[in-house]
Amino acid sequence: MRKAIVLYFILVYILPAFSQEGFHLDADKKNVTIPFRLINNLIFIPIYINGIELNFLLDTGVEETILLSLEDKNELNLNNVEKVKLRGLGNEESIEGLKSKNNILSVNGYTDNSHSLYIVLDQSFNFSTHIGIPVNGIIGYSFFKNNLVKLNYDKHKITIIKKVLLFEKKSKKDLLQFPFQLSEASLMFKRMSP
Hints:
Layout: H1 2-19, E1 24-25, E2 31-35, E3 37-39, E4 42-49, E5 52-58, E6 65-67, E7 81-86, E8 95-107, E9 110-120, H2 128-131, E10 137-139, E11 148-152, E12 157-161, H3 163-169, E13 180-182, E14 189-191
Parallel strand pairs: 5-10, 6-9
Antiparallel strand pairs: 1-9, 2-12, 3-4, 4-5, 4-8, 6-10, 7-8, 8-9, 11-12, 13-14
Pfam family, one: Asp_protease_2
Domain Peptidase A2: 54-90
Protein name: Retropepsin-like aspartic protease
């Protein structure tokens, strides 16, 4: 009986908490398509933060979501805000910023219900004038990490696909597979003959 109670607790309370961490497709969606703007080989996507639409630069090299400019979005409400010192923004010195937890980020049925983000207060990091469109922030690899991604540069669309669907719908013959080797010196891909 004790094992059954523990199993019930794990299945009902613990596993759902892990499965909802980060971005996920809404329950009724198998995939979503997100339009993007391509400017100077940079991808910009619209994302809603707590119901307000903002423009984000998509950069998979960035780990955390960063807000840089809110000058045109005065009505944005952020949750659980605290002061922090930010490092790694090009300066060796830390700068003052804010951290906000438990925000809802969403785009076309792709949602994170408990997203943390960092707000840079120093307006010298605002690069909207260099791009030509309002850029409110940068979103990184957390946007992709839980699902598969298909980028179509010609149509300016990103398709997010649940991981399990790839193997349900495609057979191995449909997938292009090739072995590769990472070079220590330059991390280059080397195509090897079978």
